[in-house]
Amino acid sequence: MKKFFFIISPILIIVSLVVLAFTFRQIHQQEEELTEDLKTRTELLTDSLKEAIKAPYLSNEKNNIDQILNKFAGRGRILGISVYDNNAEIFAFSEKLAEKILEDNKPLAEQVMDSDSSKGDFIKHNKNTFYVFITPLHLNEKVVGAVSVFQKADYIHEQILNTWKTNIWRLFIQVFLFSISAVLILNWLIYRPILNIIEIIRKTKDGSTKTSDYKSSNHFFFSPLLSEINKLHQHLNSNKTPKSFPKKTLEKVDSPWTANRLKEFFSTYLKNRKIFVVSNREPYIHSREKDQITWKVPASGMITALEPIMEACGGTWIAHGSGNADQETVDENNKVKVPPSNPKYTLKRVWLSPEEIKGHYVGFSNEALWPLCIFAHNRPIFRKSDWQIYREVNGKFAKSLLKEIKNVENPIILIQDYHFALLPAMIKKSRPDAEIGFFWHIPWPNSQIFSICPYRKEILKGMLGADVLGFHTQQFCNYFFESVGKEIEALIDLEKFSITHEKHESNIKPFPISVPFSQKSLYPKNSEIIQKFKIKTEFLAIGVDRLDYAKGLVEKFKGVEFFLSDHPEYLEKFTLLQIAPTTREEVQKYREFNEEVSAEAERINQRFKTFNWKPIIFIKEHHSHEELYALYQSANLCIVSSLSDGMNLVAKEFIASRDDENGVLILSKFAGAVQDLKGAIIINPYSAEDTAQAIYEGLTMPTSEQHRRMKKMREIVKDYNIYRWAAEFLKSIISL
Questions:
Q1: Which tens digit of pLDDT belongs to each residue from 207-261?
Q2: What is the DSSP pairing of strand 504-510 with strand 498-501?
Q3: Backbone torsion region of residue 581, taken as left when φ is above 0, otherwise alpha when ψ lies between -120 and 50, otherwise beta
């Protein structure tokens, strides 16, 4: 109990000081108002008496004056009235007026005579306070006497004293009630729930908690904290492995890969050597919204894949700082610990000017290389100015990375994606001891398409500075071999799957990237998220893609249109929820595509919608993995309609979320994931009829068939999850 009062005492002191300050102000105003009122009433009374006394005074009728004075004296707060002659001597006064008071007031009367002006003042007599007001009497504009009125003024002090007493008692009652209320609130709403939460945490460590422990209604606003503890508990349980892995276990392919196993692998094989990741897109973006800084994870398959690795192994991730509050959150070395909620590795940000962003990211990366590799009916644009800036930015990142590895022996460097095709050779030239892995996250085009690029030789030479070049599929590796064979002088060894250029050997290997996996879903089911979208139909299809022309969103919507036309019995029973956060808004083609997709969704909705239903709910906002997993778990179908895709991790996330082993995956034949996920319904996204038929087949597929297919795909994703991908990629780099 003493602790509670110690906690609330500063609040009580502050409240008391505030109340006292307002009381002082109130007293001051009250005193001024009462005093002014007393003066005004006294002046009015004196003026009235002056007219009544003037005639008998001039006629020297003292008896009449005495009667007038005694008549008014004693009324209300009037103590007495007196009249002075032209020499300031007392001419007449009321009976109850003491001579001592009159003598004390004589100097004031003399001042009135001399100045010919009315005056007032407060005087004290026998511990009593009076207010006296004197005004002159005139005859032919000459002062011939004066009239004074004495008013009792003690009531002003009494009223002020009563106000003080009232406010002090009120403050005492308020403090008492506040103290009791605060103690009760602290005890019942905070202290007891915290004790309960401590007990739950203890049980969590012992593994003896129950689901009901996390849902107690007595926790009030501690419910979010309990929810996070529950998620942490589930996450720890899903990744429980022995504290130590024998080396034989690490080598076994069929042993499940988890974050803990990857850490052990990292310790055993890499001897805790430092890992450095380089990418254009950063894993965490800080933004300022009004007066608050928030953070988010951008929509990116590359981020989805690499984040678990960095959390498991630690290290430094170097990326372009693109958030409007990024510079406010880094230290003097442009670094910040992430994730913000539970830091496990370091993010170093590199700053790019608007011209560099336009030339490197918007221009050469996304208007040249991206459409060249995606080959999805968008002509690449090559500008010499963009190429020059692309080289400069690669050099800028090389300088930042070399600074980080200056005192690191044999650093392990993982360079990501087409934004940094020149970086491997730049680093290798300065640090031959660095072991470099370069992963190309998008498709690699065939040699004929790649020959369109006017800077193809420089790009190939830059990439071959890496010790290991990773692609999603063997087909992409084969295309790369073809491109090198046609464009530059190099020794290609198809038995070893290696290329030797300028005495440096690079291994070219497929590493089909994946997602984290747990026997139980990484996130608990959450019906509130699906309710947020106000979906009440019997059947739900989910689509999650960046708003990119390579993802086939228009084709997907047309497939829904054909499905509802062919099967009107599903009207008002089927909804496609398409999550598509905007991306690359600096690129004109993407802005145009945004408008095209929005218009297509609106056209189809206008055709089929009813009063309380529309077939397509199109959301362009970013959603967290927790929210997406809840949507995956609630959906009957997941539709991936990519026109060209390196892998597509959404398909694998959908599989990983389905711990009930139901649900149907509809997968484009042009996504890299199609080579692994044989249990999906494979479609040609360019055919709306094909997509429509797949939707119908998925909705009518027997539960047993769904179970068979989903179980098969879950085994594949479990056996080759992101942790195994990371281990194999890292091992291929250090074993050269």
A1: 555 555 555 545 556 666 666 666 666 555 544 444 444 555 555 555 678 878 8
A2: antiparallel
A3: beta
